[in-house]
Amino acid sequence: MEETAPSTPDRLHPEPRREPLVFELSGEGKVGYSLPPLDVPGTVAIPQALCREEIAGETEITEVEVARHFTRLSKLNFSIDEALYPLGSCTMKHNPRVNEEVARLPGFAAAHPLAPEEVSQGALELAWRLEKSLAELTGLARVTLQPAAGAQGELAGILMIRAALAKEGNPRTTVLIPDSAHGTNPASAHFAGYKVRELKSNARGTLDLHVLEEAMTEDVAALMLTVPNTLGIFENQILEIARIVHAKGGYLYCDGANFNSFVGLATAGAMGIDVMHMNLHKTFSTPHGGGGPGAGPAAVTERLVPFLPRPTIERRGDGTFFLDHDRPDSVGRLRTFLGNFGMFVRAFAYISSYGNRIGEVARGAVLNANYVRAGLADVYHLKYDAPTMHEVVFSDKKQTAYGVHNMDIGKRLMDYGFHPPTISFPLIVHGALMIEPTETEPKPALDAFVAAMREIARECEEDPAIVTKAPHTTPVRRVDEVGAAKNLVLRWKP
Amino acid sequence: MKFLPTSDADRAAMLGAIGVSSVEELFASIPSEVRTTPNLPPPLSEIEVRRLLGSLAARNANARNTAFFLGAGIYNHSVSAVADQMLYRAEWLTSYTPYQPEVSQGTLQSIFEFQTHICLLTGLDVANASLYEGASALVETLLMASRLSRGRTRAVLSAGIHPEYRETVRTYFSNLGFTSVEVPVGSDGATDADALRAAVDDDTFAVAVQSPNFCGVIEDWEIGSRAARKKSALSVAVVAEAASLALLAPPGERGADMACGEAQSLGVPMHFGGPVLGFLSCREEHERQIPGRLVGQTRDAEGRRAFCLTLSTREQHIRRERATSNICTNQGLMALASNIHCSLLGKHGLREIALQSHAKAEYLKGEIAKIPGWRIPFSAPTFNEFVVEAPGPAAPLLSRLAGRGILAGVPLSRWEPESPNRFLVATTEMNTREEMDWLVATLKETA
Questions:
Q1: Which residue of A has its CA nearest to B49?
Q2: pTM of this structure
Q3: Same domain, A163 and A289
Q4: A203 CB within 8 Å of a chain B CB
Q5: Do the interacting molecules here have an ipTM over 0.95?
Q6: Which of A263, A378, B402, B416 has its CA 20 to 30 A from that of A93?
Q7: Residues A310, A454 share a domain
């Protein structure tokens, strides 16, 4: 492998060995598996032309080397179990380990989605009970568990709205989305066949009722609103917003990515919301896994129930559960089988652990975010000073005077042992630093984070180069992302 | 609560620092009319959570407590202890999308390795970081083909593609102005190559064929690529049983422009259908239209090899409604599991698993064919799954067998009501001759 030596060798701190690619560890004749001897004739009843040669380039490596390789690689990752991971909008909270344990029970992990219903009652009941819990927490009628992630939940929601409007005779053409929204919102609306009209936020950072009233015509299918929004600000005029949307026959869609701030304390149903997707990997603590699997159930109001994706999970009078595929008005299917069932198990275990005290999650999340805000508001610029819910968005406005940008501040945080906040989102805050501590951070961790952020603010004034050249202590130094896109190398080659 | 680390004293100090007297004050911007208290049971302890979830799990027949022959898109292949135990490591489990490469090189390098395995297995140039699962992977691949075609609106699909994949395509296409046309499988169980060619017109952007197809029959990828070439459409190879890729001719070597589908077979447990592992690979000239996350190799400031997410300008967080897809997450942990699995099994193990799975299916197929009144309706070669025609309706028979500890197959009646007696039987390296003989003996009794 081609690598250049570090420029300044240091005998006390020699450069650690770089971890090669697993393919580079391969050695002819090594074996990493064992299979039972074949107990039937070794027939190959496939024409030669349809068969391949050996898989050139694939590995030959032992279990020992594989275990080491992946253990070493893992150590190059920052994780929530290590320290505060304030990635705004992603809700990086502690993942209870009992949830991992129960998800691996053979009755869940080794169960097949097409086994006869009579012998799958436990799995169906779990999904049914999770649906009931999520319906209770959203104050909505029913929930589809099928969407594989939040973005697919959004698409499911908008497709149901479209189907309902189409059934009334006109699917309409446009979806309204505030300029503070997640990028998935406009993308999902587009893939449901809608044009997107962006709404400019007001000085508070929330939706401007005049802008909404002007935009809300009978050509508008839905308003997609994130509650609280990506600035961590609650749409305090939510009831008025719902009234305006409904008055024109439109639907109110809620991006529930930020449900962590009000779960158990308020419901979407009471707010007049018609559809809300949730991210089980955010609010309900299923692990983020280095980028998935997620799960994005979507809850709907009574009017949209006929349009839920197929199949739904139903309970018969005798208490048994079954899948109902016979739903003529359904938007159809968004993926195979029931969804990310393994995530249902974890989320159901999580909800069961909190039970009727789940509102304490939201209380803790909002308390922690406000504590961080109070600790940093004098050193970092806060463009919108409306009350903070579960996350707070600062900017680098004060630090740019010293030539330091939000990305630099994020990178420098790594040297202090923290993951950076979400950088440069939402788009309406230039130089954004979006901080979401979550409820599972103890006060000493928050204090340490605030102290690090304050120290970095001081460094920006006194020694900006230490920040702009950060990180200094990570497994690799600043990575050339521009070069990666210019000179695409997407795989190893034999 | 054991997941909430704020003591009463801490809370009081924090409220003081914030300048409010109660946590409730922080919720003042939520209108009181929408406040509620959830009607949920009281909290459960860890012991009670284990008990509750354990009792639900105990009521599901599964591959560990039955003779197991279910497939139809989800397969019971082996998962090594190393792979599962590695997934428990907090550094893998509790990290997120590697937006910050300096503290995510583990995840990034693992995805880069996963992308490489998928390329080697499919014989194509580049692969993405994974997609949700097989059906939406097919959708994303078709949408990618439509973008490359610049304005064509029609996809030709073999009816041998998994019915839930085709249904998902219809859901996604319904509002985008695209149509999908389905070409039936012939009497031998393979797609009718002439009908496939005839279905392709000037407006067709893609031709998609699955192999092994939903009936378990091995298709020749060339029927798809030949039909597509006729009108300069793109040829899409769909794989729902990825273990087959180690034995069957790779799509890229037989003319496919793109491959996609479900890689659950490569190291991911069945999980009652999810999470599983979608994949997508394609030729280099199309790489800038790939949807979803991509990891690329680059350098750090000191010139060392490093990895990062790349081509993010295709994605929704930058391009919003003009993005190549609305997807945000991939299936990170499942891609890791698959990387570990493929690395352990490697060149020889992956092939041996494919050979064993096939040989066991051949044995079982031969034994079932000998039972009077039972039939194997399709003559075309199969990989590890095949259709059986029972002398009577399959669904009630399969339920009866399930009660006796045999999950013998998946009835086809939900998708093909005209064939109530047919069902799919799948084998993997996990099946023993003993349980196959037990299945055959039991079928004989019922005949």
A1: A349
A2: 0.97
A3: yes
A4: no
A5: yes
A6: A378
A7: no
